[in-house]
Amino acid sequence: MKITENVPIKELTTMRLGGPARYVLEVNNPSEIPEAYEFAKSKNLPIFILGGGANTIARDEGFNGVIVRNTMTGIKSAGVTDLEGVPHGTFSDVGEEKVRQDPRRYIITAMAGEVWDNVVAFACERGLTGIEALSKIPGLAGAAPVQNIGAYGQELADTFVSAEVYDSKTNEFKTLNKSDFGFSYRKSILNSTEKNRYFVVSITLELQPGEMQKPFYNSIEKYIETHNITDFSPQSIRNIVTAIRADKLPDPAKIPSAGSFFKNIYLTKEQAEDAEKKGYPVYKGHDGLKINSGWLIEQAGFSDKLLHGIRVNKKAALVLINESAKSYDDLAKARTEIIEAVKNKFGYTLEQEPNEI
Fold it and tell me: Which of 63, 87, 300, 357 is spaced 20 to 30 Å from 49 by Cα?
């Protein structure tokens, strides 16, 4: 386990803001997880689990505690019954040939420190549907269930089976099933009722051979029509989503941002009918009725606008870019202006998506 002191959090998060963290620990295997908690306990300091830093905002004062980074990687496939009895933090040695013999259920398990997009690529290369629309979402696999990541009509909860976790309350490794997570839109127990309790070791998903079902998300449908695409295989949808995101969304590894900064607005049937009467674009998809918050921000006059060093992305207003902001306060001022303007114009209250240290 690697331990460093006084590390600038802006170097660990893609928004490139934040003061120093007292300690940063890198966990390379499951046996080091209890050691990390013991280290924090011995210093009488709080712990914050940090993945790739793409969905996390840090304040200027930094964090007087221990940031633990998960560097455990690996992806494997296994037959459904072969997951039973597998030790925590390890993989079954079952080969893919057995999995192909039972194509109805295909299980993949990824260590929590694995790059999420590698998991999507792994599935698409095998013709498995369920997460192809989640291509190029930045971050690690272990962060995926924290906020129930979703995009273009799919979300993690659709395929999630379980996670191996370390319970810091009981000091033991255990398995949490999908029903334990309380998934909803961008929410789970990991970022609400049980925040900071569990350290995710690995996640397990259940996918199937086949294609993503219509209706497709608007941007995907438009891309398909423009390019006369008739192949809707997982790899094809992945290619489409990759192209759309490359055109509309800045790469947080190159341009400071935190991905989608605001959550979309989900509506009841009655709210959707009222919104349509007012001429607002309501998307009706597999995940419910919603209005794209980016559209609301654009209509409120913020597209490509620079606020306190924060640029509202021209092609996807959900994304805020740190163009010249030097502090969390700059970001907070920009956020407040956008939220208040949308509230005054439409009556909807935008909610921030990234977590805060």
Answer: 87
